[in-house]
Amino acid sequence: YEDYVLKIAFSTLNFTDKNRNPISEIDFGKINLTDKKNVDFFVVNKGNLSLFSDLKFEVFHEIRKTNLSPGNYSFLIPSHVKKILVKISWAGDSNYTLKLFSPNDNLVGESTNKHLNSRIFNISREEFIEIENEINDGRWRAEIINYSLDLNPCNLSIIYWFDESDWLVSNLTKFNLTSHSSIPIQVNLSIPYFAVGGEYKGFIIVSSDNNAKIKFPIKFNVTAGTLTVSDKFETLESKIVDNIGFNRTGSNTRNITLKLENVGNENLTIYLKTSHFLNHSSNYARFSTITLSKNQLKPSEIAYIYIPISINTSETNNQVGIYEGWVLLN
Question: Which of 165, 172, 194 is nearest to 54 (CA)?
Answer without folding.
Answer: 172
